[in-house]
Amino acid sequence: MSRTFRAAVLRAAGAERPYAISRPLAIETVELPPPAEGEALVQVKAASICHSDLSVVNGDRRWPLPIVPGHEAAGVVAEAGPGVTSVSGGDRVALIFLTQCGTCARCVEGKPFLCERGTQANREGRLITGGPRLSLGGQPLHHHMGLSAFAEYALVSEKSLVKIPPELGFVEASLFGCAVMCGAGTALYSAAIKPGDAVAVFGLGGVGLAAILGARIAGAVRIIAVDGNISKKDLALSLGATDFVAAEGAAQAIRALLPQGVDAALDASATVEGFEQALESTRRGGSTVTVSLPDPGKQFHFPLSRLVAEARTIRGSYIGSCIPSRDIPTFIGLHRQGRLPVERLVSGTLALDRINEAMDALADGRAVRQVITF
């Protein structure tokens, strides 16, 4: 028997700001069928709003429309479909935005964060198990990143779920599926920060601030936080940054502090300018790692001779090179020890009806992580 529930539906990207007036996200009653083979129905308890969700709304990232956005959430399994063995009804879970099939070449080689089948399903706005499953007025709605979490329920592949302990609050748990993996994971795995390293983090949203936490866990002795919004300075310093510099002219300011540059520069700015400043702040032989997803049409230029002569490493980081089934329990353990205080990244909670206003706050830089609660 099909189920109806409330969800935020985006029919067209690129609406004029403020979104509180143009209201690109409409709260609609949508429909979905029961879970099919390998699928689970999750009652969403908390869904965090990430810059990647904003990029769906403003059109920086192209997705099939209409779509229900949302890719960072936690909830309770309401129903497990046929053949599901990893979760059962009543389990508390974090939702993961890239389903990992376990059988493609990338999964087999130990890099499930590059899963080919999961990536293709996400690009097509469906589940790895098929679909789209969502519908509105008899017309299909696409899934965002295999989750579509800005809704009261989410129908997902069981491989998009990681069980979480009962004592972990849903608001905090929602951040582990994206902000923590993309931020702390990038610091620990993609950039492989070592004890004693000097690090710069560009962009102090949820991912950038989580990267500061990851760099501190990794043993970095100098962590320079970079953002165009001075209001984020105190939070960054309290989370472990040793210095703060403004985004404009950041490379020059960093070189004034560390003339040779940093060992690793992590870019979470979502801008080409931020990445270029990160690159210029990195020492010879150092690593510049970006987790940003700006408009695909934007490019940067860097002399090939410098790449060679300075032995540079330039790397992209997707999901922080994490393996969710391994790393989310590890990160939760660090959280319980007080070493990964993700609750401090939460700017506030809100109802689903206020999602357009929340997108304005994110676009204006007035919030880090806002969490929709149900």
Give the CA-based shape.
globular
Largest sheet: 7 strands, mixed
**Computed Rg:** 20 Å
Classify the secondary structure makeup into a structural class. Answer: alpha/beta
Mean pLDDT: 96
Helical percentage:
25-40%
According to DSSP, the number of beta strands is 18
Task: Give the uncertain stretches in residue-range form.
Answer: none
CATH level 3 topology of the largest domain = Quinone Oxidoreductase, Chain A, domain 1
Please render the helix and strand layout as text:
Blueprint: E1 3-10, H1 19-22, E2 25-32, E3 39-49, H2 51-58, E4 67-68, E5 73-80, E6 92-95, H3 105-108, H4 116-123, E7 134-136, E8 139-143, E9 153-157, E10 161-163, H5 170-174, H6 179-190, E11 198-202, H7 206-218, E12 222-227, H8 233-238, E13 243-246, H9 250-257, E14 262-267, H10 272-280, E15 282-290, H11 304-309, E16 313-316, H12 324-336, E17 346-350, H13 355-363, E18 369-373
Description:
The strands form 4 sheets. Strands 3, 5, 6, 9, 10, 17 and 18 form a 7-stranded mixed β-sheet that branches. Strands 13-12-11-14-15-16 form a 6-stranded parallel β-sheet, with helices on both faces. Strands 4-8-7 form a 3-stranded mixed β-sheet, with no helix packed on it. Helices cover 28% and strands 27% of the residues. The chain has 2 domains: 3-177 and 341-373, Quinone Oxidoreductase, Chain A, domain 1; 180-320, 3-Layer(aba) Sandwich (Rossmann fold). It has 13 helices and 18 strands. The two termini are 23 Å apart. The longest helix has 13 residues, at 206-218. Helix 6 (179-190) runs parallel beside helix 7. The chain has helices at 19-22, 51-58, 105-108, 116-123, 170-174, 179-190, 206-218, 233-238, 250-257, 272-280, 304-309, 324-336, 355-363, and strands at 3-10, 25-32, 39-49, 67-68, 73-80, 92-95, 134-136, 139-143, 153-157, 161-163, 198-202, 222-227, 243-246, 262-267, 282-290, 313-316, 346-350, 369-373. It is of the alpha/beta class.
